[in-house]
Write a structure and sequence with these properties.
By secondary structure, the chain is α+β, with helices and mostly antiparallel strands. The protein contains six helices and eight strands, in the order H-E-H-E-E-E-E-H-E-E-E-H-H-H. The chain has a domain of about 140 residues. The two termini are about 45 Å apart.
Amino acid sequence: MTLLNKFTQKPNDPARAFSETPEPDMRWIDLLTGERNCPCCNTPLRDLLSLACSAPEEWYGVNTSQDNDAFHTATGDILTHDFCRIQDRHFVRTVMLLPFHDIESCLILGIWLHLDKLSFDQFYETYPSGEQRAMDMQFGWIPNIIPGYAGPHACCIQPRDGFKRPIIHAALEEDALYGLQLDGMSFEMLITMLEEYGHTGLSDQTG
């Protein structure tokens, strides 16, 4: 078998064809498969790719959530695993996915979404069935701080079946999160965000 040298083949030689897709940043591979830990908390770096907010930013009580069943009988402010009420404001727990450049993976943000009462009631009443994917599109606002991305953030909510938390998407093109979800984040952007969430020293360790 003759091996073709790509440096000596003619430009119109079909055998010279090659993928123009750039090589992925190898730091992603190291992050996803390596054994490095965060220098400030000793958490494996790959475990930092899923971050969660325990409550909406304005929640003033303890961050220990109750079972969802408690929401139905509570009369005042309450925080459960998937629902929250603060005075006359209602929230559901959701997931925002921020894809990475060059690699099929993403940063998962577990954040809350403020819904109007009508939308919240519809979501809450259909939740026990585990069948919510067919619900009408709903819109709300993120009540959590996302470091480096000043709010407010209007989002549309994508309910899912099987008791999975709904996925949210930034709704306005002028929102920086909209472009981030569309174009993805670079390795440097991820490290910056993780450091702003309190995982200091990552940029020195990862280069």
